[in-house]
Amino acid sequence: MxxxxxxxxxxxxxxxxxxxxIFVRVDYNVPxxxxxxxxxxxxxxxxxxxxxxxxxxxxxxLSSHLGRPKKKxxxxxxxxxxxxxxxxxxxEEVPLIKNYFEDKGExxxxxxxxxxxxxxxxxxxxxxxxxxxxxxxxxxxxFADVYVNDAFATSHRPDASIAGIPKYLPAYPGLLMxxxxxxxxxxxxxxxxxxxxxxxxxxxxxSDKIPIINNxxxxxxxxxxxxxxxFTFLKAQGLHVGSSLVDDNKIDECKYLMDKAMxxxxxxxLPMDIVVAQGVSSLDGTxxxxxxxxPHMMGLDIGEETRKVFAEILHGAKTIxxxxxxxxxxxxxxxxxxxxxxxxxxxxGAFTVxxxxxxxxxxxDLGIADKFSHVSTGGGASLEFIxxxxxxxxxxxxxxx
Length: 401
Fold this sequence. Notes:
With 401 residues, the chain is of the alpha/beta class. Helix content is 35%, strand content 16%. Strand 15, helix 13 and strand 16 form a beta-alpha-beta unit. Helix 12 runs parallel beside helix 13 and helix 13 crosses helix 14.
């Protein structure tokens, strides 16, 4: 599904929010260490939307989940650190509202009398959230006049705060949500002037990427495969891959995809050489040709020749979508391949979209994030979108009231 923006209602820039209470679903599922935020990127990504809504006279009820709490009021998963961070952003206290479901929003109403921004405690403290409970959604909707979804990363979930609330309130995508939809849609609506289009896929879990490959076989000109998932494809070609990561249950699907690509004239490119070692904790690796992996060794990065060939292919692209590292990049001996791919894409001059936490971490570490056209916050939502799946959170924004 490709989401078509409705110009008459989709833009929050054109809406009248003066004096309105706005329920804003954000993605503040941030990493914490000892109750301290270690990476506030997801919070800061929401600031343009929040600033605009405040400038237009709205009062904001922010809501998010955090982690997977097993019980209510589990302090490990409290949004208290986020409330503190938001207070610094707004230069005034952002109160954290608890028990908002039990008191039917009385605490919300009282807090909004004295504050422009409030934050609801972790939505997943209530099982009704992930269950998509309609009554829970209705209670949350009763707090506000308008709903804004700026949490693209959670919009593939049919949660009450994602798919339920828009049934009861006028609903808009936030600026971040809209940027995600518009940029990812360019990948799915590729035009002739934007070719060649190269899809670059890595990572370990092949099951996440097979739907993307299947969908993009009708759109891409070249598909480049690396990372742990490459070894299942290589084994499907009859090669011996030593003790490398392989999903034997996906061998037949890999054969089908490679055969389909060949029939459709799509270049399906796999590594030519590999950096192998006995394990991820090895202090170094050995570069070998793809058909010479020793039985007791595992492939942990793409090799030197593969890096050069992949970089040459990427240099000629006009559109690139990249998701997933090309080796065990967390370990110094096996990060060169992923870094080489990141740099090649950044220097390609193409329209570039990168998604996936690991890929984004690499370009942030290299300091080249600003050289990418769009850095997706979506994770699983981006994968499902590119796979052609319908996202409940987007569908809810499209629905007529």
